[in-house]
């Protein structure tokens, strides 16, 4: 059975690995970054295509590779990718399966602020900092940065510009993947070298808390990426450190209505394997 997995996440890597080892399934994968390509390859995909694929390109990939099933395991915030996948699978008349990370149960706390976009998040963070006199100065004075007056950005480098557009880059600490792209992007947006933490993985609340304490963080920006994205660990650390958290909630995708959606990797894999019999 030829399967196309839209990958790039750790969940996709697990799906690819389990299907490849089971036998009887040939996995072709797509990913948008070199990091995602590497993850898919090491997980066992027979071939990985890199790039952003619209619905037409995906339909061509399905046709050219005799794909019988499309598995969408893209990030919860990659709504365009999911919409393109559904349109392509419907047009090519192949089955579509979505893997959706279980949602995080957000604690009820005055320190936690839920918003629906990164634009809204930037507005809320600006209000929290309440340092309008130096939020966006050309050359902000270092001695004007108060204790616990910085923002810890934990939402992916491609959303960083929403903050740098309204807040001085000197006030932003970013944790990004240890890739040339991520570090270069951070520097281009004006983030100081010593405010860039290049690390991969999810981390314990204790580690996240130490990071917040070390950089004198007043507010954390993250997104609701589920347990495998480390969302709860970030929130727990912030609450212990009495740091405010702004969480961008997942976009709702209307096209998923009526589609097969799994929240557990093993259940999805079992379903795919049952189709091979």
Polypeptide structure, described:
With 277 residues, the chain is an alpha/beta fold. The chain is 38% helix and 20% strand. It is built from 10 helices and 12 strands. The strands form 2 sheets. The protein has a 6-stranded parallel beta sheet, with helices on both faces. A 6-stranded parallel beta sheet has the order 6-11-10-7-8-9, sandwiched between helices. α1 packs parallel to α2, α3 crosses α4 and α8 packs across α9. The longest helix is centred in the N-terminal third of the chain and has 14 residues. The protein is elongated and about 60 Å long.
Task: Please give the structural blueprint.
Blueprint (H helix, E strand, L loop, with lengths): L1 E5 L3 H13 L3 E6 L2 H10 L3 E4 L4 H10 L4 E4 L6 H14 L2 E5 L12 E4 L2 H12 L20 E5 L6 H4 L7 E5 L3 H9 L7 E3 L6 H10 L2 E7 L7 H10 L3 E5 L11 E3 L2 H12 L1
Parallel strand pairs: 1-2, 1-4, 2-3, 4-5, 5-12, 6-11, 7-8, 7-10, 8-9, 10-11
What is the radius of gyration computed over CA atoms, rounded to a whole number of angstroms?
20 Å
Question: Can you tell me the residue ranges where pLDDT is under 50 for at least 5 consecutive residues?
Answer: 132-147
Average predicted confidence as pLDDT = 90
Strand order within the widest beta sheet = 3-2-1-4-5-12
SS summary, helix count: 10
Outline the biggest β-sheet. Answer: 6 strands, parallel
Q: Which geometry do the CA atoms define?
A: elongated
State the order of secondary-structure elements, H for helix, E for strand. EHEHEHEHEEHEHEHEHEHEEH
Quick one: how many beta strands?
12
The percent range for strand residues is: 15-25%
What fraction, in percent, of the residue positions are helical? 25-40%
């Amino acid at each position: 059975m030829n399967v196309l997995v839209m990958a790039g996440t750790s969940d996709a890597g697990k799906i690819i690995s389990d299907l490849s080892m089971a036998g009887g399934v040939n996995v072709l994968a797509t990913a948008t970054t070199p990091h995602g390509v590497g993850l898919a390859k090491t997980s066992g995909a027979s071939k990985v295509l890199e790039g952003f694929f619209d619905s037409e390109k995906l339909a061509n990939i399905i046709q050219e590779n005799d794909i019988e099933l499309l598995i969408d395991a893209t990030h919860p915030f990659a709504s365009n990718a999911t919409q393109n996948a559904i349109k392509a699978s419907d047009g090519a008349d192949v089955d579509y399966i979505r893997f959706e990370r279980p949602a995080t149960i957000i604690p009820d706390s005055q320190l936690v602020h839920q918003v629906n976009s990164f634009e809204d998040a930037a507005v809320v963070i600006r209000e929290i900092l309440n340092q309008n006199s130096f939020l966006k100065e050309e050359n902000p004075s270092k001695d004007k940065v108060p204790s616990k007056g910085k923002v810890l950005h934990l939402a992916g480098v491609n959303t960083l510009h929403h903050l740098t557009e309204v807040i001085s880059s000197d006030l932003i600490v970013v944790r990004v993947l240890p890739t040339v792209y991520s570090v270069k992007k951070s520097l281009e947006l004006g983030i100081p070298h010593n405010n860039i933490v290049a690390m991969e993985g999810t981390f314990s609340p204790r580690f996240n808390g130490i990071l917040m304490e070390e950089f004198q963080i007043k507010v954390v920006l993250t997104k609701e990426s589920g347990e495998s994205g480390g969302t709860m660990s970030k929130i727990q650390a912030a609450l212990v450190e009495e740091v405010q958290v702004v969480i961008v909630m997942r976009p709702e995708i209307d096209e998923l209505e009526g589609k097969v959606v799994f929240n557990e990797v093993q259940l999805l894999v079992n379903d795919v394997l049952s189709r091979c019999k």
